[in-house]
Amino acid sequence: MNAPHSVPPRITAPEDEARQLDATDPGHRHLFHVPPADGGRYPEAAYLAGNSLGLQPRATREELLADLDAWRQFGVEGHLEAQRPWLPYHELLTEPAARLVGARPAETVVMNSLTVNLHLLMVSFYRPAGRRTRIVIEDSAFPSDSYAVRSQARFHGLDPDETVVRLRPRPGEDTLRTGDVTDYLATAGDRVALVLLGGVNYLTGELLDIPAITEAGRAAGAIVGWDLAHAAGNVPLHLHDWGVDFAAWCSYKYLNSGPGALAGAFVHERHLGDPTLPRFEGWWSTDAATRFEMTPVSRPPATVEAWQISNPPIFSMGPVRTSLELFDTVGMPALRERSLRLTGYLRRLLDEVSADRPLTVVTPRDPQRHGCQLSVRVAAGSAAELSKRLRHEHGVIADAREPDILRFAPVPLYSTYHDCWRVADALAATVAEVTR
Ligand SMILES: Cc1ncc(COP(=O)(O)O)c(C=O)c1O
To answer: Which residues carry this modification: N6-(pyridoxal phosphate)lysine (predicted)?
Structure first.
């Protein structure tokens, strides 16, 4: 039955079904630019790489040009006279960003880039003392986070190999259980200064139980911070209510704000205005009302803006502002519902394709434990080569991560059921069936 095919095998799920699902559950693709396909039978790419870089909203260009025009028209006076004056420009982003992550405006700021924000927050919140020096991360943390925490340990004169604890899934399992983290905290929590985990893991797509882990970390006396690069705009977040100490996220993935876009930062209200917290400062850390008094000593506000340092890059703020407006219009709850439907559909098709092929979906099956991304382990051949073939032979844009993972993210704002169907169809045609 599974002899090599002369005609590439196709999946049994009908293409028409995907088209019909798109007609009844259309999403907001019309608001985005979708790249053309690089190969295959369809004019547009099936873009499943929004977990890496989100697509460009159609509105972004005009909004960006308007900010550029203000500079042309006003020169320096644009700080006060531009249609969106530059001095308080970042404030336009605060409330929508706060809504997106379930925070209060005073707890939220858009600034810098992700790893920079993690460092600035660790300056305040990683304060090793006595036996309590450890930093807990996932073994599959994104490398930037690993490098960041190791360098923080060195900064404090500690040995990173002893200081950084990397939690691994149980033998034979692909993802961490909540209990793996909370058990560690219950037994060794008195040695832990900081827990810094990815809300959604970049590699496996696993959504950790942020409230349960935050509670366990804090109960153990540690500070709990979250890297929300793969969670912001992907899953509903309630950072304030969950009691998270701090968090940071980027805006170039699910927030569709362009390559290297500005990041977000959150500090819980209970830490705001705490004069004992060490913090790096610049002229944007001082209260805006005193900024031009040109005094030698800052007067930081009791908000997360105290963590700002430099005046913000206006042309980078425009795309974030435009994108956050979209999230406000559509709303995270509706996006999450469509996300579960789309990813559920992709899962169903991948189950069929992987049944006879050396492919395994490693993302947890429980919808409470994933966002939109499904990660597939490729047991034979190279995931990187496969991703190239998907793109050039089928117009499917996904990505590969070493050593053997393909990542597919149907993004509820713009991905379609037909995109998901194309993924499964392309995998069926590209990956040889295993003869049993
Ligand atoms: C989970 C995670 N953390 C950190 C980063 C690094 O972010 P940046 O280069 O914006 O600092 C990335 C980049 O993709 C990421 O996926």
So the answer is: 253
Q: Is 142 in the pocket of ligand 1 (CB under 6 A)?
A: yes
Q: What is the mean pLDDT of the chain?
A: 96
- Is residue 279 lining ligand 1, measured as CB closer than 6 Å? no
Contacts of 101 (CB under 8 A, 6+ apart): 108, 228, 232, 237, 239, 247, 249, 264, 266
| 384 belongs to a structural domain | yes
- 126 has binding-site annotation: no
The domain containing residue 426 runs over which residues?
15-58+331-430
C-alpha 174 – ligand 1 centre gap (Å): 21
Round to whole Å and give the CA distance between 436 and 417.
Answer: 31
Task: Kindly state the tokens that stand for 82.
Answer: 């531009």
Question: 146 CB under 6 A from ligand 1?
Answer: no
For residue 1, pLDDT beyond 50: no
From the CB of 285, is ligand 1 less than 6 Å away? no
247 and 126 in a common domain: yes
86 is in an annotated binding site: no
